[in-house]
Amino acid sequence: MRVTTPPGPSPQPQPARSRDGSWTALTRTWRTKGLAFDLGTLLNRRRALGILGAGSGVMLLAACGGNSTAGSQGGATSSTPASASPSPTATRTYSTEMPQETAGPYPGDGSNGQDVLEVSGVERRDITTSIGGGAAVDGVAMTLTMNIVDMVEDNGPMTGAAVYVWHCDPDGNYSMYSDGVTQETYLRGVQVVGKDGTVTFTSVVPGCYAGRWPHIHFEVFPDIGSITDAGNAVLTSQIAIPQAMATAVYKDSRYPDSAANMSRVSLASDNVFSDGTDMQLPRVTGGVSGGYTLTIDVPVDTSTAPQNAAAPGGGAGPGAAGGGGAPGQ
User: Fold this and answer.
1) What predicted TM-score, i.e. pTM, was given to this entire model?
2) Which among 308, 281, 301 has a CA at the least distance from the CA of 148?
3) pLDDT in tens, 97-150
4) C-alpha closest to that of 230 among 309, 122, 174, 160
5) What is the DSSP string of 79-102?
6) How far apart are the first and last CA of the chain?
7) Which residues 6+ apart lie within 8 Å of 268 measured at CB?
8) DSSP at 226
């Protein structure tokens, strides 16, 4: 995978990691007033302007952070592919919550060391770059729209919920954890659910590392005030990348090891998806050259206590600092 430094202002200086390997020094440098302040300010602006609707929300987010332009192979890949807009409502009525899954060893939510959720600027639509500058990830463009369904409220939109998404890069590395990218925060971001029930992230298709089917992690929190504590998540789960899509993407030279890694695992043998993926496979449009659009319903039952989905301690995973370890989750 190639990571590049985008044009514009120079990245913020990166402090050395503390002696115990923690991320405290880095988060202190990047943190201003933190995520809760950022999201509170955003929500107050929306209320003041009366624009909680999805279309205006996207305009406001663009004004706060903006989206870079995209290209096909060899160019930046952070644009939204031209394709049909996702439906803002659930495709059906749900009686079962999306399965709870492990957050894995690399959540970056404070449950396993590093905590990006306290870094100012994590609330963003485009997650292809590190927060505040730094590396930009090059890969096949992907736009992910998640419809967060509140089962307790007659399968209506879970307006006001906060969704945190993260996944590996085309080389299978996780920012904040893997060797060489511990000072980066790319492919991590938060969005707040609007009146239409959706959140949308602009990213790149994740790679496939040894031992796991390609996937996307996410956590759903009940509101913006609770997101800085991973224990407040009402749902922690994973989205599986469909096989046909992954097969096409992994022919791209920016994913050098993914095809071989995926050939040695299947959805049926994967340690997360082997019990079924009926609710965890997204609908897909688009292609490699123009990018993919993924849409998925995420039914959440807040009347039941979430299972303990904290990241397992001591896991190292693909290229993780500290070496070795399990092949990730």
Assistant:
1) 0.74
2) 301
3) 999 999 999 999 999 999 999 999 999 999 999 998 888 999 999 999 999 999
4) 309
5) SPPS-PPPPSS-SS--SSPPPP--
6) 21
7) 274
8) G
